[in-house]
Amino acid sequence: MDDLISEVIGKKILALGNEAIARGALEGRVDVVTAYPGTPSTEIGDTFARIAQKVGVYFEWSVNEKVALEVAIGAAMSGLRCMTFMKQVGLNVAADALMTYCYIGHRGAHVIVSADDPSCHSSQNEQDNRLFARFANLPMLEPSSPNEAKEMTRYALDISEELEQPVMLRTTTRICHTRGVLELNKIDIREEHRKTEFIKEKYRFTKIPALAWEAHTRVLDVMDQARRISEKCPFTTTEEINGIDESHTDAHDRSDASRDASASSKIQDGFFTDESADSGEKIGIITSGVSYGHLKEALESLKINARVMKIGMTNPLPDASIANFLKSCNKVIMVEEVEPYLEEQVKIIAKDNDLTIPILGKADGHFPRIFEYSIDIVRRGIISALGLEMETKSDNALNVGEMELPRRPPTLCPGCPHRASFYVSRKINKDHGIYSSDIGCYSLGLLPPLRAADVWVCMGASSGLACGFSESTDQPILAFVGDSTFFHSGLSGLINAVHHNHRFVYVILDNSTTAMTGHQPHPGIPRNSFDEIAPAVDIKKIVEALGITFIEEVNPLDLEKTEEVFRRAMDHQSVSVIIAKEPCTLLKLREMKARGQRVVPYNVDLNECKKCMKCINTLACPAFYIRNEDIRINPSMCSGCGVCAQICSFDAISQEGEAVL
Amino acid sequence: MKINIYLAGIGGQGILTAAQVLGRVAVDNGVNVLVNETHGMAQRGGVVTCNVRYGDVFSPLIPEGEADVLTAFEPVEALRSIKIANENTYFIVNTARIYPFTVSLGQEKYPPMEYLMEKIKKISRRVVFLDASELAREAGNEICTNMVLVGGIFALGVLPFDKDQFITTLERVLPPKIFKVNLEAFLNGNKFVRDEMAPKE
Predict the structure, then answer these.
(1) Would you say the CATH fold of A598-654 matches that of A417-592?
(2) Which CA distances in Å does A433 have to A107, A451, A508?
(3) Given an 8 Å threshold on Cβ–Cβ distance, is A297 in contact with B58?
(4) Residue A244 pLDDT more than 70?
(5) Which residue in A10, A224, A256, B76 has the most C-beta neighbors within 10 A?
(6) With respect to CATH, is domain A232-386 assigned 3.90.230.10?
(7) Contacts of B10 in chain A (CB under 8 A)
(8) Rounded Cα distance, A126 and B86, in Å
(9) What is the pLDDT of residues A38-85, one digit of tens each?
């Protein structure tokens, strides 16, 4: 039995933040869930791929984030309860739909999850999508723990229904990928996903320019209403943290959304009449999201007393509650990751209320604006803001000095077909070629010795960038794109190339999956999100329909044939397309194992090997190693792709070992 | 109460599974827990770390110098994570080396084992080196290296649960056909570390 669909109310389970969001959506009676995979949000969808059919929820991995959002907008306009989730940069893709959607709203409920990635663990930037919420007039909640992520998802659906407005749940990597204890609430298990009837309503969802200003008025009214909700949001808490004596910690935790509003306001009143407020320096700290957890433990280790306001609903902010909080302190510290989102607004609130207390944070350099936070970083920030004379490290931290350790960068797997495509590309074009890359496993082609990624910007950009290079240089240009990324947004750049006669080789690295995020399906695969048979969209036929005159499909593991195809493509006088088709090695090995087949690994004949290092210096396959100057292949890592054997000048590599799993 | 267990190693070594079971045993016994995991990019042959925190914890990450136990699935990873430790931290270090491809390819040097062991011993005297991969093979499958190391953690007496409570959880979590070999691995690691930590005559 899957704990995430357990109907035992009150049961405590261990779940990942992303699983908590999935469970919260179920507890919020979600009908439709849509997404495009992207770290750190992906496991929400992996969860729905597993459970959606068992609980009567519609789920799809859509072609990209914009379409994912639009699918859910349609369902929400029909009156259903929806969730769309994406990584932070996914919201850029969805932004066109989002901005106008926020003007017009819906008739159901809709939570949009933005999983931000401070420190860029798996991303090309660390953009703070709280600014997006403010820009788009999107009410927003920020969870500080996995259980709160669950509760907030449910709550977000409820307030979205009340406001007829989408609501953002903004999480970060350390919430998404942290397991915590969840306490389960009720879910409805249905046979099939709910259907409804779309009710026509003149001009409700058709904002022609003459009516668009009305929609702008509507959203401003909605945000006023949302502000009133924010003022009594049960996830916004104030508490005294008594760092000097733990036994006096007086936490007013209102995070249980089921607790009634009058009870929580009493607690709030209790705080503002707290006796300790009248004695000595009153340090206030305002925080949100995962920083709250770091902050609590930082205060404990610093042995500082402070009152902490954790804001759960961060757009619109509870202005009146914040003003009251500021009035009860004579110094306020802002603790939030990335942008000074709260800090700048809190300063405006202070100004509007004629408060001149110091508000310390990023503007004056106490807290960094880059990287995710930790207990240590929050500690240092508080020490700096309060001008304390103490060690910025915790008592136990050691001074170990720097050590020279070998790095362990991520790399393409042994047998990855991308390695072969990159090898051939570089063999032909060397450093003279421009390698326009894209987002996926093949981004790792950046690393030496392959060095087959000079530029990448965002999903699908390799084709558009190549159009630019073709007009700005006469160098040979190769643009790489994965199959999933091609469907996501690579196609439009290719269409542009055809129409404007830009010249480059577009290499579609088709490994029949969305590999980097953990093998989700995409429209080119005859399987849907539940691994059922589904119509597949043929990449080759799409490319043919564009009128491209050079289209070749080749298995990149066949180096001779691949090189021949690449050379012809490079000579072609207009845009050419190579579909380098070979399944992801990890999938291939999994399927072989399921069929009871075994890999026959390659090995190096030490008598024949001249130690020229060509295999190592050009492929850098991680299955290779050197022992006592001899080049060897680790049989348990070799996938049997045979690329190394094809490039060996002395026929020293062959497949003669015993089959291993 | 606050107990911090740090796990460090390489993608594919079963670190996430180890962390999950260490989390699950807490829930099964009514103890609060936070388990932070590395997902995504780093799993492609990169470094994977997990923070397992029990008790009165709110942050998913262990602060510098605050690990009660540092479990390294690979010796270099013990040193890479050293800032998480203090002089009283228990180190459980798998001596089976996994060379980064940069080392296999001769682009970088892998430090000698003696250097690694000396560095670690200089920091803490509570150090156990074990060939967890070998102990896992003895149990029946090298893939259970993670359970050998978890078994080692349970020999230290720092966790708020005992061995039997863990075994109950393990049996609940794992499919029956792999439970036995994992249990063997756990017991091998547990015995090895217990013997190592026992006061020498």
Answers:
(1) no
(2) 53, 11, 17
(3) yes
(4) no
(5) B76
(6) no
(7) 408
(8) 32
(9) 999 999 999 999 999 999 999 999 999 999 999 999 999 999 999 999
- Model pTM? 0.94
Taking only residues 14 to 43 of chain A, the set having a beta carbon closer than 8 angstroms to any beta carbon of chain B reads 14, 16, 39-40, 42-43
Q: pLDDT band for position A367 (50/70/90)?
A: very high
Distance between CA atoms of residues B49 and B39, nearest Å? 9
User: A108 or A627, which is more confident?
Assistant: A108
Mutate to test the interface with B, among A398, A404, A633 (most CBs of B within 10 A): A398
Token output for A417 = 């077909």
Which of these, A177, A165, A154, A144, lies nearest to A44 by C-alpha position? A177
Q: Does domain A598-654 have CATH number 3.30.70.20?
A: yes
Decide if A250 contacts A242 (C-beta within 8 A).
Answer: yes
Total count of domains within chain B = 1
For A139-150, write each residue's pLDDT tens digit: 999 999 999 999
Per residue in B136-158, pLDDT (tens digit) is 999 999 999 999 999 999 999 99
Band (A4; pLDDT cuts 50, 70, 90): very high
* Sequence letter at residue A328: S
Does A622 touch chain B if contact means CB atoms closer than 8 Å?
Answer: yes
Q: Which of residues 10-69 of B touch A (CB under 8 A)?
A: 10-11, 19-20, 23-24, 26-27, 32-47, 57-61, 63-66
The string of pLDDT tens digits covering residues A597-623 is 999 999 999 999 999 999 999 998 989
Query: Which of these, A310, A245, A317, lies nearest to A271 by C-alpha position?
Result: A310
ipTM over 0.85: yes
Block means of pLDDT (10 residues each) for chain B, length 201 residues?
96 93 97 91 78 98 96 95 94 93 85 92 93 95 96 96 96 95 98 90 58
Q: Output the 3-class SS for chain B.
A: CEEEEEEEEECCCCHHHHHHHHHHHHHHCCCCEEEECCCHHHHCCCEEEEEEEEECCCCCCCCCCCCCEEEECCHHHHHHCHHHCCCCCEEEEECCCCCCHHHHCCCCCCCCHHHHHHHHHHHCCCEEEECHHHHHHHHCCHHHHHHHHHHHHHCCCCCCCCHHHHHHHHHHHCCHHHHHHHHHHHHHHHHHHHHHHCCCC
Q: What is the pLDDT of residue A657?
A: 65
In chain A, pLDDT over 70 holds for what percent of residues? 92
CATH number of the domain within which B16 lies: 3.40.920.10
The pLDDT of residue A477 is 98
Please name the amino acid found at residue A620.
A
Determine whether the interchain pair A406/B102 forms a contact, defined as Cβ–Cβ distance below 8 Å.
yes
Identify whether the C-beta of residue A185 lies closer than 8 Å to the C-beta of residue A27.
yes
How is chain A split into domains, by residue range? 3-197+204-229, 232-386, 417-592, 598-654
In total, the C-beta contacts within 8 angstroms joining chain A to chain B are 174
Orientation of helix B145-154 relative to helix B15-28, angle to 10°: 40
Cα(A520)–Cα(A514) distance, integer angstroms: 5
Rounded CA gap, B178 and B175, in Å? 6
In three-state secondary structure terms, A552 is: strand
Distance from CA of A259 to the nearest CA of B (A): 22
Residue B9 lies in domain: 2-197
Non-local CB neighbours of A29 within 8 Å, separated by 6+ positions: A81, A157, A187, A188
Q: Report CB contact under 8 Å: B79, A403.
A: yes
pLDDT, tens only, A171-180: 999 999 999 9
Structural domain A3-197+204-229, CATH architecture? 3-Layer(aba) Sandwich (3.40)
Q: Of the candidates A293, A396, A516, which has its C-beta nearest B66's C-beta?
A: A396
Fold of A417-592: Rossmann fold (3.40.50)
